[in-house]
Amino acid sequence: MRRILAATLLGAALFAGAACGSNNNDGDNGSDGGNTNASDTTEPTQAAGSQSTDEVCAQGEQLAEDFLTEFQAAGAAMATAAATGDQAAVEEAAAGMTSAAVNTADELRNLAATAEDPELQAAMEDFANELEAFGDAISADPDALENLDSTGLDEASARMEEFCPAS
Prior knowledge:
Blueprint: H1 2-18, H2 53-84, H3 87-112, H4 118-140, H5 151-163
């Protein structure tokens, strides 16, 4: 049960830190303007949208809150199921965690397409891809939550914070 709670908190913390907690509101997108490792990022696949970084970050914050609510509820259900030995309920809760991650990743991609800044688009798309992979990994093996590799999600989270610093 401890590992389930730890995985829930890990997912929540990673997403909360990256999903546009707040913007610095000084007109600067928080980026130093340089891409430190272009091979690790997604190039924007579409033309820039019409929303400012502040607008995208504010909407990203709402996505983060919605994700955390759903992900934590599924994590709590998983912990309860594991404590009672109900494997079917563990798998159902894992599916809920996966669904939260995959659905939020889709919403992030849609939001990314609205951003004026192509670098923000790319960072948000990278984060969405990593979040979806994290969700898929939970679905593939709910019992391996404590061993999930979150390196890619950590890196994508840090890149998102360049644009939307956590409060």
